[in-house]
Amino acid sequence: MYGKKASELVKEFASSEPGQLSAFNNDLFSQVLEECNGHLLHLQSLLRKMQEDGPDNQTSRNADHFGALMHHLSIVRNKRCLMAYVYNRAEVIQHLGWTIERVLPEEIEEKLSNPEKDYFKNHSATLQSYMSELDLDLAVDMVPPKDPYIKVRVLEEIGNVVLSDQFANLARHAILFLRRTDAEHYISQGLMEELSS
Predict the structure, then answer these.
(1) Locate the DNA replication complex GINS protein PSF1 C-terminal domain: which residues (predicted)?
(2) Residue 175, beta-bridge partner list
(3) What is d(CA 196, CA 192) in angstroms, rounded to the nearest whole number?
(4) Which of 67, 77, 83, 181 is the most exposed place for a label (fewest CB within 10 A)?
């Protein structure tokens, strides 16, 4: 049945948890591309036949016309399914660029195809370049904080560090008031936790 493999590809992505990636299905993706190529060859042969027959042969022209239309619509449907699969995966990868540092964890990286890995690297590099140009970390919080300082507890020994407005000893179990922008980096790495007031 035409388009069945392409719909399986979309269903596979739709059945995964939102924001999560399953391994890129190279096999099924290639099968859909092969099906598109097959449709294209049939379409081209029907169009050549229609040109050779000319406008005189009405009965074969109608059958060839509807056959060509069927192959064309199958190509369009398969392309839409392929694009939906790639686009939705790209959206998840973009989100990872905002939440993960420049290096992907191994369990996520093995699920990506090579073009997706390149896309993540380029997207992350562009984000980092833009944020360094502005000297602003856009990934810290999407909601503006009420207070620029937060109360944190150090979970792991970090040592002496220079922060944006102070020099601090981040000893294990220390409770400090730090600027949110300084603390977010350590919180995302699991070295600190924010304490509620």
Answers:
(1) 146-195
(2) 153
(3) 13
(4) 83
3-state class (DSSP) for residue 160: strand
pLDDT digits (tens, 9 = 90+) for 137-184: 777 666 666 777 889 999 988 888 888 777 888 888 889 888 888 888
- Chain centroid, CA 102 distance in Å: 14
Element (H, E) at 185: helix 180-188
Question: Which residue from 86, 93, 90 is spatially nearest to 28, judged by alpha carbons?
Answer: 86
Cβ neighbours for 79, distance < 8 A, ≥ 6 positions apart: 36
Nearest to 122 by CA among 91, 151, 94: 94
Q: How far is CA 41 from CA 71, 82, 140, 182, in A?
A: 9, 19, 52, 59
Give the H or E element holding residue 25: none
